[in-house]
UniProtKB/TrEMBL annotation:
InterPro entries according to UniProt: Carbohydrate_kinase_pred_CS, CARKD, Nnr, Ribokinase-like, YjeF_N_dom, YjeF_N_dom_sf
UniProt cross-references to CDD domains, sorted A to Z: YXKO-related (cd01171)
PROSITE patterns: YJEF_C_2, YJEF_C_3, YJEF_N
Protein name (Swiss-Prot/TrEMBL): Bifunctional NAD(P)H-hydrate repair enzyme
Origin species: Hymenobacter nivis
Source organism phylogeny: Bacteria, Pseudomonadati, Bacteroidota, Cytophagia, Cytophagales
GO BP annotations, alphabetical order: metabolite repair; nicotinamide nucleotide metabolic process
Length: 502
């Protein structure tokens, strides 16, 4: 699913009207109908209380007026407050004329802002995607008043005051803090970034039949990956496939006190369907590894406490390095040798990333299509401190294009950056996955799918991220988010991949 800019979204509306031979008023009615249907399912008329609809002068306000009419017809108690202006859009005027007289309407004024009780239900239809500057004057006062009321706010299209495509130029300007945000057709980039979470709340995208041909042809670097995305499905295994068919992976992991990371990563690789797995670990971890992961083969390093040797890479179709690895100088030398000599796909995580960050000259040795799986702190060490989440995405795109690699920037909507500069946000996962070892599990899963020669680097990585998050969702359904541990992710990788197999 593509993520478009505000300008492209406007063009999409125009293309839809032309392709489907409908008017802007008819498209607005379609949007209002979708909003109302969502509302009916979320809030029952006998429980919602009186609903305040705040309407601006443009088409976002027109959506609000049309929604107020539909909610009134469905038996909800509705009142409308209008932001005064000398000019309104034509569709606003149409829906104002068709608002039943029984719906109370007031004009907003600085000295007479509407009373909003704590917990009241308010629909924010002041300003949507078309807003290009911070709120000021009366509009800013209304939003500040709304935020202070601690109401339950449903934002139409976008919380008023929030920009769709970039950071706020004036961080002090008020932005509606919505409980829910209801977008149309496609998600917006603003929905996916941590700095906007307190404004956007829980977001939903409503289908209003926008023109698919325009979407297919629109150029954008931003995408949103969902479970139903056929481009990241796992091919079904052939009847005569066997262990050599699905690749032999090598995992370099573990150090004294951190063998759990190696165990978790190996478990995920095995559950991820790898044909064969060999782990190269320090001597201190031999007993625990062989006991907990008997399905894997094990090579022990000459050093007891850390990895200091690179084994012969000849037997392997992919190599992963990093979970629990430590940052000994001898381990740094192993990483450098791996980067210089490997002819197979690499997956780099955790302490291997920290070694890269501490010795950035090694970045120039990254083989093309290497997969790096940093969290935000590790990515900062590889690049620089970001001014905000939008700047971090700029840094991500610059990094992946410069080094021709795939980067998994882990977070609530994990972003997978491809060497061509395209970025794919992930839809699966939950806050329970913010626990130690979760990243080690992802590394093992990526390694398994990179060893599978049926999958390309981007396909394998996006699939691993999608399945990892889905495993977390399956696990959380059983344990709850607070009770989820990394081992639960390993246990649910099989069912997660099964759901993604075609």
């Amino acid at each position: 699913m593509k993520i478009l800019t505000a300008a492209q979204t406007h063009q999409l509306d125009q293309a839809t009207m032309q392709a489907q031979n409908i008017t802007s008023t008819e498209l607005m009615e379609r949007a209002a109908g979708a909003l109302a249907e969502w509302f009916y399912g979320e809030f029952h008329s006998n429980e919602a209380g009186e609903i305040l609809v705040l309407c601006g002068p443009g088409n976002n306000g027109g959506d609000g007026l049309a929604l107020a009419r539909l909610l009134h017809a469905a038996g909800y108690a509705v009142r409308v407050a209008l932001l005064p202006t000398e000019k309104q859009s034509a569709d606003w005027q149409h829906n104002r004329q068709h608002l039943p007289a029984a719906v109370p309407v007031a004009e907003l004024a600085a000295g007479a802002l509407p009373a909003i009780a704590p917990g009241a239900l308010v629909i924010d239809a002041l300003f949507g995607t078309g807003l290009a500057r911070p709120l000021a004057g009366l509009a800013a006062a209304v939003v500040a008043h709304l935020n202070q009321a601690r109401a339950h706010v449903v934002a139409v299209d976008l919380p008023s005051g929030l920009l769709a495509d970039g950071p706020q130029p004036d961080p002090g300007a008020p932005v509606v803090r919505a409980s829910y945000t209801l977008g149309f057709g496609l998600p917006k980039l603003a929905f996916l970034l941590p700095q906007n979470a307190d404004y956007v709340g829980e977001w939903h995208v409503l289908d209003i039949g926008l023109d698919q041909d325009f979407i297919d042809q629109a150029a954008t670097p931003w995408h949103f990956t969902q479970l139903a995305d056929a481009n990241v499905a796992l091919p079904r295994r052939g009847r005569f496939g066997y262990k050599n068919t699905f690749g032999h992976a090598l995992l370099l992991a573990g150090s004294r006190g951190k063998m759990g990371a190696a165990v978790l990563s190996a478990g995920a690789c095995l559950r991820g369907g790898v044909g064969l797995l060999t782990a190269h670990i320090p001597g201190v971890g031999y007993d625990v590894f062989q006991t907990t992961r008997p399905e894997a083969m094990c090579l022990t390093d000459a050093q007891a406490d850390f990895v200091s040797e690179l084994p012969d890479l000849g037997p392997y179709q992919a190599v992963g390095i990093g979970p629990g690895l430590g940052q000994a100088d001898a381990t740094r030398a192993v990483l450098e040798e791996l980067l210089r000599t490997a002819k197979v796909p690499l997956v780099i995580d955790a302490d291997a990333l920290n070694l890269l960050g501490a010795h950035r000259e090694l970045l120039e040795l990254l083989p093309e299509n290497t997969v790096l799986t940093p969290h935000i702190g590790e990515f900062t060490r590889l690049t620089e401190k970001a001014h905000d989440d939008y700047h971090r995405l700029d840094l991500l795109r610059a990094f992946i294009q410069k080094h021709r690699c795939v980067v998994v920037l882990k977070g609530a909507y994990t972003a997978v950056g491809a060497p061509d500069g395209q970025v794919y946000f992930n839809s699966t996962g939950n806050p329970g996955m913010g626990t130690g070892g979760s990243g080690d599990v992802l590394t093992g899963l990526v390694l398994a799918l990179r060893a599978d020669q049926r999958l390309g680097p981007l396909h394998a990585t996006r699939l691993a991220v999608l399945a990892h998050g889905h495993a977390g969702d399956l696990a959380a359904a059983e344990t709850g988010e607070a009770g989820l541990i990394a081992g639960d992710l390993v246990a649910h990788i099989g069912p997660a991949l099964q759901a993604l197999t075609v």
